[in-house]
Amino acid sequence: MKKLYPTFSSSSKYRGPSQNTSRPTGTDLSTLLTEVLKRDNYDCSYCGFHAEEWQTLIYLDGDSTNNAKSNLTTACPMCNLILNAPLGCKVESIVELYESSRYNQNKIVQITRKMRSQGKPDADIIRFLGLKDKVPFKMNKEYLKDLFAFVTSWKGSWGGVEESLAFGYKQ
Ligand SMILES: [Zn+2]
Predict the structure, then answer these.
(1) 22 alpha carbon – ligand 1 mean position (Å)
(2) Would the pLDDT of 16 be above 60?
(3) 89 alpha carbon to ligand 1 midpoint, in Å?
(4) Contacts from 167-171 at CB under 8 Å and sequence distance 24+?
(5) Dihedral of the alpha carbons of 106, 59, 77, 3, in degrees to the nearest 10
(6) In angstroms, what is the span from residue 82 Cα to ligand 1's centroid?
(7) Is this prediction's pTM over 0.90?
């Protein structure tokens, strides 16, 4: 599995609209999505979660204009919120950050999904994971990479996030 930690795509590589004319159209992107998901057997590259619904793509180099298949990998909705930490922590307020844990980030996602599907409340999951010292989100990759992200049971502000996460908890 690929190493998982809270981060976000870099905008510094953004080449600007004038050089983006070769970007694929929406149809090409959905074809690319299907091709990469099939290649990865619909398994999340970060936690191993298998699902033929709601999986998404991650740009490995953080450059969302680099649509080479070698730069794309499959992620589940939980890992996607961690790899897009501003979305998870700020926009949706659904991801919390901690300084320490008994488990690595990949395991945290696996255990959270399992315990939530068993109906365990967040407090029990946090205690089991040994998540300690909650800290605020900062738009700083160096700061984020050593932290542990916890996807809470809080319902996101956008229905799609909520629905995609709930799908995973029913598996
Ligand atoms: Zn995952």
Answers:
(1) 30
(2) no
(3) 17
(4) 167/51, 167/53, 167/54, 167/77, 168/49, 168/51, 168/54, 168/76, 168/77, 168/78, 168/113, 168/117, 169/113, 169/116, 169/117, 170/117, 171/49, 171/51, 171/113, 171/117
(5) 0
(6) 9
(7) no
